[in-house]
Amino acid sequence: MLKRLIIIAIISCFSTTICSAENKSRIRGTEFQAPKIVVLPFEIYASENISYLQTKIPEVIGNYMKQEGAVVVEADKVKISRPRSLSKHDIRKIGIRNGADYVIWGSLTRIGQKFSLDSNMMDTLNREPISAFFVEGESIENLPVTVKKLASEFGIKIFKREKVARVLVTGNRRIETDAIKRMIKTKPGNAYLAKSLSEDLKAVYSMGYFDDIRIEARETREGKIITFRVQEKSTLRHIRIKGNKIFEDKEIRDALDIKTGQTLNVFRIQSNIQRIESLYKDKNYHNVSIAYDIRQLDNNQADLEFVIEEGKKIRIKEIAFAGISAYSDKELKKVMKTSEKGFWSWLTSSGEFNSEELEQDVVRLSAFYRNNGYAQARIGEPQVEYREEWIYITIKIDEGPQFKIGKVDIGGDLVLSREELIKPLKITKEPLYNEDVLRNDVLLLADIYADQGYAYANITPRLDKNIAKSTINITYHIEKDKRVYIEKIIISGNTKTRDKIIRRQLKVHEQELYSSRDLKRSVRNLQRLDYFEDVKLNTLKGSSDDRIIIRLDVTEKPTGTFSFGGGYSSVENVFAMASVSQRNLFGRGQILQLKAELGGTTNRYTLSFTEPWLFDIPLSAGFDLYNWERDYDTYDKDSKGGGVRLGYLIYDFTRLYLSYSYDVGDIEIIDRAEAPESIKDMEGENVTSSISTTLRYDSRDKMFNPTEGADHRFTAEYAGLGGDIAFTKYTAELGQYFPLFWGTVGFLHAEGGYVRDDDDGKLPDYERFYLGGMNSLRGFEWRDVSLKEKNEEGETVDVGGYKFVQFNAEFLIPLIKKAGLVGVLFYDTGNVYDKSEDIEFDSLRESAGFGFRWYSPMGPIRIENGYILDPEEGESSSGRWEFTMGGVF
Description:
Residues 162-233, 234-311, 314-400, 403-481, 484-557 form the POTRA domain. Keywords: Cell outer membrane, Membrane, Repeat, Signal, Transmembrane, Transmembrane beta strand. This protein is 19% helix and 43% strand. The chain is an alpha+beta fold. It folds into 7 domains: 2-158, TolB, N-terminal domain (Rossmann fold), CATH 3.40.50; 164-232, Ubiquitin-like (UB roll) (Roll), CATH 3.10.20.310; 235-309, Ubiquitin-like (UB roll) (Roll); 315-398, Ubiquitin-like (UB roll) (Roll), CATH 3.10.20; 404-479, membrane protein fhac (Ubiquitin-like (UB roll), Roll); 485-556, membrane protein fhac (Ubiquitin-like (UB roll)), CATH 3.10.20.310; 560-888, membrane protein fhac: a member of the omp85/tpsb transporter family (Porin, Beta Barrel). α1 (2-18) packs parallel to α2 (53-68) and α2 crosses α4.
């Protein structure tokens, strides 16, 4: 049954297509009387029931004959079931009775998959059949094509047409004959029709490969031999470009899609002219004119030359606004990035036209109006007009009324009280309607609901505009949907870092209630690790409506670092630092570092190791070993020692550290007259055994170039657990980063310390406080801010302070955000004090300056120049550069 329906559909579709032709025909411009035809039902001989073809086959033959120009007697006028049982006399009578010139009858025989069509056609003016026809086919699905072939044979006889015996193609060299014949619909055995050949001519020409095509027909005994004589287009040998100054030849050739060796095609040449024009117009050369010249060569080849007249660059002369009253042209132009040509256009590119940028300006203008109360403002499509060497832009604006904020309410499914939900909304503090604030409040409410597990809460702000009062009442309608649980956490992209190292930073866990706040914190924790270039978070639908899948895609970056730095000072002269470290050893999150510092007065070698999660709990442990040789001008100190340390996460972002260190320092006095008194009695070996504890809060979003967060610490150190040295030291440090405007960041830093000597030991000068250098007061030399005291010889010498305070303020400006390049303006102030001195803020030393910081592929780089604002005798205020650099592997 299915096969039957398919065949009926195919035959019906084929039949309908044929019927669309007119019934009138003309031969050589003379109208003739259309012949009338009767098509009798075909007899069917088959093992299965396909009797429906008895009428379908005549229907298709009849429709084809109508297309050819015959008149077919309607089937319902002739009701004969078995025409082959009729005599020729009876068949002729049927034709005459219906006024037909011809009668067609036949049968279909099917054996297996093969079938055959046997048919006859009688001219009613004669008693004998004039023709017998036989066609066969494979598979009943091919029946429509076979029936059409049979009908074509009838047409040839009735309309006295000639057959096509053969179809030939000549003159082609590069284009294959089979490729051309696929475009020709006229086939051997078809009727010779001028109309069909005309269509074939168009089809072959549309291939685009030929300059000339001629069709010749030659009569033979078998029928017409049709020959398509083609003349191929030339092959492109060279493409030359002339007259271009703005673009190099290569830039223009890269924009072309026509290449040497291809067939020369006029349509493709025109298309490539448009490509070149687009290239110029993108650079605002809208008056560019491009012509082409073809030079014919031997062997059917040709050279193509594009001749370019670039014209002058067109810039924007005027941007005008129509329909505005609330704001001036100047105020609106400040909102746009597209600008008019200015005096400094050669430097700033003002007046450059960019259609995509102009589209974005429409969005910016719309946002500007909607963020200033004009909730119904409409910005029209910019009208761009080119006049000679200038561009004129007109933007139509329908401002509408300015709306104030009316009542703000929340309705729907409330997870907290109405007051608790309204309180954090910023729109309540806005005097005018502001779409950005409204959008941010929606996100804020979404986060509140997501923290309660409603990850799919739908929050819709409904605006009720009171035109008379020019107010908008806002109601946030909330549909909380179902509470959502985390079904699965999928981590991908980590080829080195182990899953465990990533998962221990997550604040969300599988099978727990979804929390947006904890999820954001998890991403921030991963970013703080500084193992990844990028951390992408996606949430996917789980196995049910109340399940969610969290997918974390991380992009790892090198965590091994080779860093070096250097500088110049009157103390160190030229100094250098190099270190090799791995912050993610074997993908376990362990830190191993070997560091060397070499200078005119200092040589220091350090080896350190840290395990951040000992026993898989947030307990860090590590050790340090060092060898430190230091020349303090008046004495040398050679230290060897080490220490162990522990740290534990006691609260969010907060760690408590405990460490023990042991140092053996060998002191050699170089200039006893200039040496501090606290050092003179320490010549030889001195042992320092100390314990210290640090409480640190660090919520910075990044370790280098952070944009927000804090870094605070308090440290207490006690030396005197045996050994020769005994002191107690306290230091405290506060640091806060906060985002400002336009992506800039502010940083405020304060630090102070106090040290006292104990009765049972010594306090060496190198454990006291000095300021000056890259990490304290920039512009001053290293350890340049100190106290002065007279020694036993009556000489004035530099000594460290018992107290110090230091304040730093920085303004960080992103210069190239993607590259991590940041500019910095800074102000530093601070001083050191004796044990008996009070800290007086009017005695603080001051410096200011600027610099650059770059998180380069080689690692962090700092270059900063500080100027002393209150220079004393012997100090320079001309500025002092310092730098540090690093590299990664």
